[in-house]
Amino acid sequence: MKFILIDRIKTIELPNRITAVKTLSLAEEYLADHFPTFPVMPGVLMLEAMLQTAGWLVRVTQDFRYSMIVLEEAKNITYKSFVAPGGSMEVIAEAVEIGDASSDFKAMGRRGDEEIVKARLKLRHYNLADRDPQWADTDDRLISDARKRFDLLGGPAALKTAGVLAHVR
Amino acid sequence: MRWIWIDKFVEFESGVRAAAIKNVSLAEEHLHDHFPAYQVMPASLIVEGMAQTAGILVGEARGFKEKVILAKVKRARLEREVRPGEQLRYEATIEQVSAEAASTVGRVFCEGKPIGEIDIVFSHIDNNLSGLEFPEENFVFTEEFKSLLRTYNVSGRGT
């Protein structure tokens, strides 16, 4: 399966806020197991959606400097509701701090005013070549792939909107 | 992709603790899409592996009568990436179990070395509603699921 847990980046408000949306479809195969008579989005894929959303803000902020942006630590991931097929979840990630090698986020998923999930996330960022220079070409490929995927998710348009908003303010 | 994130239990002490293993393989399709040129097991799915290990431990402790669902991940910390060809081991211990909820503490090992901790709170939703709608039957531990348990060498108290 594809492991892309957001469908669209909606807004990017530099320096610290990004929103995205994940729609859920019964065509997603894992829903057959989770659960057979009650298909709902697995809680850990809500975590993945929040991680991926936060990761895009890190990449944009750092102009895609690092190939690997991964979970270091999640705290207090609290689940309040389900997402069923045909439904969607808005994902919001607010950066508390984006440092060079790590970042700290407050993230949540919601449906209108209803909170579905929230969490505190710490990410780490690095290049494979930092540990072994032989991997530099893999870093290049990963960063190139990330830029293409950012385009696919509507990232450039979300950034453009942010530019307009900043201008209006 | 299926939603089965442990391969088998290797230790199971009813109501107390359990250990399960998961082999990470290049044959798993999602690995080729997470970081396409550098395959790693997504951290979120490692959290799910622990949730399944700990969730079955908690479910078995009350005869699989409760609908055990994830309510909170208190903390999940992972210090390195897990790559194809490596084996994960999840060790979960019940901290507390009541009519409404259960909590577990867990450690994650990769190739025998500790790589992180994942502590979870589960809700027994029949006794711990928050106005959400869900089916009457036990949709978590279905018949199909229980038959899978046999391959895990877990019989299940009262089943």
What is the tally of helical segments of chain B? Answer: 3
Main sheet: strands, sense, barrel of chain A:
6 strands, antiparallel
Instruction: Assign an overall shape of chain A.
Output: globular
User: Which homologous superfamily in CATH is the superfamily of chain B?
Assistant: Hotdog Thioesterase
* Average pLDDT for all residues of chain B: 90
> How many domains in all of chain B?
1
Largest interface: chains, residues each = A-B, 42 and 41 residues
Low-pLDDT segments, ≥5 res of chain A: none
**Distance from first to last alpha carbon of chain A:** 42 Å
The CATH class assignment of chain B is: Alpha Beta
Shape of chain B: globular
Number of helices of chain A: 3
Strand content of chain A: 25-35%
CATH topology of chain B: Thiol Ester Dehydrase, Chain A
Using only C-alpha atoms, the radius of gyration of chain B works out to: 16 Å
CATH architecture term of chain B: Roll
List low-pLDDT spans of chain B.
none
Would you list the SSEs of chain A in sequence order as H and E?
Answer: EEHEEEEHH
According to DSSP, the number of beta strands of chain A is 6
Summary keywords:
heterodimer, A: 169 residues, alpha+beta, Thiol Ester Dehydrase, Chain A, 6-stranded antiparallel sheet, 3 helices, 30% helix, globular, B: 159 residues
Structural summary, described in words:
- The complex is a heterodimer of chains A (about 170) and B (about 160).
- Chain A has about 170 residues and is an alpha+beta fold.
- Chain A has one domain (about 10-150): Thiol Ester Dehydrase, Chain A (Roll).
- Chain A has helices spanning about 45-60, 135-150, 155-169; strands at about 10-15, 15-25, 70-80, 90-100, 100-110, 115-125.
- In chain A, strands 1-2-4-5-6-3 form a six-stranded antiparallel β-sheet.
- The mean pLDDT of chain A is about 95.
- Helices cover about 20% and strands about 35% of the residues of chain B.
- Chain B is globular.
- Chain B has a six-stranded antiparallel β-sheet with strand order 1-2-4-5-6-3, covered by helices on one side.
- Chain B has one domain (about 10-140): Thiol Ester Dehydrase, Chain A.
- Chain B has helices at about 30-35, 45-60, 145-150, and strands spanning about 10-15, 15-25, 70-80, 85-95, 100-110, 115-125.
- Chain B has about 160 residues and is an alpha+beta fold.
- The chains are: A alpha+beta (about 170), B alpha+beta (about 160).
- The interface of A and B includes residues 35, 37, 74, 76 and 82 of A.
